[in-house]
Amino acid sequence: MSTLHRIGHALTLLLPGLLWAGAAAAHGVAEDDGAFIESAQGAQLLPYLYLGAKHMVTGYDHLLFLFGVIFFLYRLKDVGLYVTLFAIGHSSTLLFGVLSGTHVNPYLVDAIIGLSVVYKALDNLGAFQRVLGFQPNTKAAVLIFGLFHGFGLATKLQDFALSKDGLVPNMLAFNVGVEIGQLLALAAILIVMGFWRRTSAFTRQAFAANMVLMTAGFVLTGYQLAGYFQS
Fold it and tell me: 3-state SS of 23-51?
């Protein structure tokens, strides 16, 4: 098996491991980062920029969804369109949720985020057309799920007593950091996908990869629903 073939095969094997390693920490904020957020006073643009980027790069649910979104997108124009729609969605609700003090149940919103991963895997498998007889609007779906991903981000920041002093610029910096983190993660995913797509095994492995992606989404959803009913 060539190196390029191994890349494709490895993705189908690594996704479950990444999920189980990060399920409990998806969207989570590290203890040191949380201590900083609690103590920060005034505008702290660079630290919040860093925290936003770190949060996105380590957010397994976000990355799984992005992986599904770009799975069959071959043109950078299309990648840019869908990623922009996702960014508009999660940026809007992240800022709205924190600045307005709007609270949603973190377990339920994270369960919906898990379902967004399931949706994208089913979409990639062509399940909607075959089973339901129609294809949902993929652009609208990415935008709508982006809104839920943003609320997921907001719920984790709302766990902390955020200082009103500098809150707006800090949240804007955090949001910019999230977008930077998203671009970095997306670049890495596209590089790997570029190599994988050039292999003869891609078509065969694409089905298995999306089945694994769908399973990961169901596990995330189940994990969050279990937390909801136990809380």
Answer: CCCCCCCCHHHHHHHHHCCCCCHHHHHHH
Tokens standing for residue 100:
């307005």
Distance CA 194, CA 208 (A): 18
Helix (H), strand (E) at residue 117: helix 106-124
| pLDDT above 60: residue 2 | no
Q: CB count, 10 Å around CB of 162?
A: 18
84-101 tens-digit pLDDT = 999 999 999 999 999 998
For residue 230, is it within any domain? no
Which residue from 33, 85, 27 is spatially nearest to 60, judged by alpha carbons? Answer: 27
Q: Look at residue 58 and tell me if it is in a domain.
A: yes
Phi, psi of 102 (to 5 degrees): -75, 125
Q: How many Å apart are CA 154 and CA 142, to the nearest integer?
A: 18
Cα angle vertex 131, ends 130, 135, to 5°?
65
Minimal CA–CA distance to 95: which of 151, 52, 34? 151
Output the pTM of the full model: 0.84
Does any domain span residue 31?
Answer: no
**In the structure encoding, which two tokens stand for residue 167, read together?**
């809150």
Q: Which domain does 165 fall in, by range?
A: 3-23+41-222
- Lookup: tokens for 225: 């629903």
Q: CA–CA separation, 202 vs 210, rounded Å?
A: 12
Q: How many domains does the chain have?
A: 1
